[in-house]
Design a protein that fits this description.
By secondary structure, the protein is mainly alpha-helical. The protein contains 9 helices and 3 strands, in the order ααααααβββααα. A hairpin with a 2-residue loop joins strand 1 and strand 2.
Length: about 200
């Protein structure tokens, strides 16, 4: 079965507090769509791989034939990363997490402000294109960054929250001011969705 482009869960102009409508339209409708199209092309004639959920395909990346493995990393990672990215943002969002997620952040990063600072540091420290993540690694929250469209799933980690620092994610509004984009991005983080992902990762789902 072919992979498909998921619809945005809100209008393209819903995240104007941090991300402009045109960026959302291009980012979702062109960049993400291209990853999906290229992933399907790479997996043509590989029904056993096509039938796997994208997360499992990336976890099992070593089992993907070498001739198409990098294409699956680039495009499958791009598909998985962006599918999550759209979901963990939303209108009327922002603020701080609550419940078990908030407690885990406090336990591992001292407080929410320090967690934000560490994630920003990881995002600013990523040279060129990539992502900064909050992942669950062996049951423990951890901040990591990955290059290009590499996915934490390939390292046995489960992404809980991720911020895209490819220039196409922010350049129309922020140009080269990645730090300004990162500061604004917290205004649209959907902590309810992040908390659901945290709970599911903890339970092994």
């Amino acid at each position: 079965m072919a992979f498909t482009l998921p619809p945005l869960p809100y209008p393209a102009d819903a995240l104007e507090a941090a991300i402009d409508k045109m960026t959302m339209e291009i980012h979702h409708g062109k960049h993400h769509k291209t990853y999906v199209d290229n992933l399907n092309a790479a997996l043509e004639g590989q029904p056993s791989l096509q039938s796997k959920p994208i997360e499992q395909l990336l976890r099992d990346i070593a089992g993907v034939p070498e001739g198409i493995r990098q294409k699956v990393i680039n495009n499958g990672g791009g598909h998985a990363n962006h599918s999550m990215f759209w979901q963990i943002m939303g209108p009327s969002a922002g603020g701080e997490p609550t419940g078990p997620l908030a407690e885990a952040i406090k336990s591992n990063f001292n407080d929410f402000a320090n967690f934000k600072a560490k994630l920003k540091e990881a995002a600013l420290g990523r040279f060129g294109s990539g992502w900064a993540w909050l992942v669950l690694n062996n049951g423990k929250p951890q901040i990591v960054s990955t290059a290009n469209q590499d996915s934490p799933y390939m390292s046995g980690q489960t992404p809980i929250l991720g911020v895209d620092v490819w220039e196409h994610a922010y350049y129309l509004r922020y140009q080269n001011r990645r730090a300004d984009y990162l500061d604004a991005w917290w205004k649209v983080v959907n902590w309810n969705e992040v908390a659901k992902r945290f709970a599911a990762a903890q339970s092994g789902k």
